[in-house]
Task: structure prediction
Amino acid sequence: MPTRTHTLAALAAFGLLSLTACGTQTADTSDARPAAPASGEGHTIRATQVSHVTDPHKATGMTLLEGPVLAKDGDLRLVDVTAPPGEPKVISVDVKTGAHKGVYTDKTGAYTSAQISPHDGRVYLTEYQSGDVVSIAQDGSAPHTFFSGKVDGSPMNPDDIAFDDDGNLYVSDLHGMKTGEAEGRIVRIDRDGGKATVLADRLAHPNGVMLDPEQKGLWISELAKDTVSYLLLDADRTKVTTQHEAIHVDGGVAQTDSIAVDAKGNLYQALHGRPAMAVFSKYGERLGTVEVPAKEAVGLQSATNVAITPGGRSAYMTVSGPKGGYVYEFDALAKGIRLSNGG
Result:
């Protein structure tokens, strides 16, 4: 079962990503049924399949869905990180019927997340290879490079995005993602794209980033440490005043991926390496584990992200592996809010 570092490195071999180093690789367990939940994993939250969206691409030998976000038409927008040039890189999925279609592609992008700005309603995409943040209209038209260039003297390798209510961006920056090195960052970008500030650095492959419901602080996950940390922000949300490790996720071969929150502040921690999500209270109590049915989990390796319907409890999780890329639905523990709609 490849780690996320190995997945990104594999793309580099096909010319889709330019990485200088790759991570370690663990044994492939994709053909085995997942083990029964260990003690302390809370109750099982069963997910049901909504749509089979993609199959592994011939050019890359894989597919990896990420960044689900519900658009104004009620359909999901999500990205396929591994899509080769010309194949759909942003996909629309009808959550009622499972029908899907490509809405955007290009020749070079390797997009790792999608999120909708509350400021202009456009879909913002993190492009791992160039370090750019690209925006498109919700129908996939009018692509525009929102942010490009170095931050504090070095380029980004952006992964996830969160928006505050004013439209400012908070981006997890893998910053090269070299094995054994903690050089990752959390970067804040003003909503006009004119200023980028490093809020936190020396992080071990930061992946998930999400504001809490009160927008007083950031929850971040470090993939290489399997930890979730809380970063308290100042009143302007431009500086970190305190930072601490809040939760350690006992994931075994799985690693902490993206994060979402619901209206009660519960955390939905996606797992790269297991088609499941760990759910915690804001105080760190393990409340449950979102699981794909065992028979369907064969050939699936990761649950990367989730979108919870604002004002409702329907949650849509992206799941991928050698079997293909899928969307699964489950009932969240509390209602969704704008912030829960992807990450």
